[in-house]
């Protein structure tokens, strides 16, 4: 028997982000992604309420939009009070890296847990004219329930149960 470990989610953003599509930019997977435009802290936030404790894994792809954005991208992933940082050297040609973080969900079933991807550093296109930043795509949260892992998609953050 499978018990759903996700109660609800909501999604938002902080400061400058740009939705990009695969017709005009390099999107790691699918038809669209989010570019964290630098200059100010920028990011996306999802609030998740867990119904059950357990081991969870958050997968995502970080890359560049093939828009001549060059520099060292740094993205901070925060799940409640847990923080990881990821870096990618961009030469502006659509590079990407897949990442996976596993953590123990020991949150109250009434507590809303923020999951955020944030970038603080400033990067620009190779001609120094346009602010740009890392692309975040294919965000998947997998919930483990004993021997079972299932998928569930949500707007913004894709959650799997």
Structural commentary:
The protein has 161 residues and is mostly beta strands. It has one domain: Jelly Rolls (Sandwich), CATH 2.60.120.260. Helix content is 0%, strand content 61%. It has no helices and 14 strands. Strands 1, 4, 6, 7, 9, 10 and 11 form a seven-stranded antiparallel β-sheet that branches. Strands 2, 3, 5, 8, 12, 13 and 14 form a seven-stranded mixed β-sheet that branches. A hairpin with a 2-residue loop joins strand 6 (69-79) and strand 7. The radius of gyration is 16 Å and the shape is elongated. Residues 1-10 and 146-161 have low confidence and may be disordered.
Characterize this entry briefly.
By secondary structure, this protein is mostly beta strands. It has no helices and 14 strands.
Shape: elongated
In CATH, the topology is named Jelly Rolls
Give Rg in angstroms. 16 Å
Helix-strand makeup class: mainly beta
Count of domain modules = 1
Low-confidence stretches: 1-10, 146-161
Question: Topology of this structure?
Answer:
Layout: E1 6-14, E2 17-21, E3 32-36, E4 42-50, E5 54-63, E6 69-79, E7 82-91, E8 96-105, E9 112-119, E10 123-125, E11 131-132, E12 135-145, E13 148-150, E14 158-160
Keywords:
161 residues, mainly beta, Jelly Rolls, 7-stranded antiparallel sheet, 0% helix
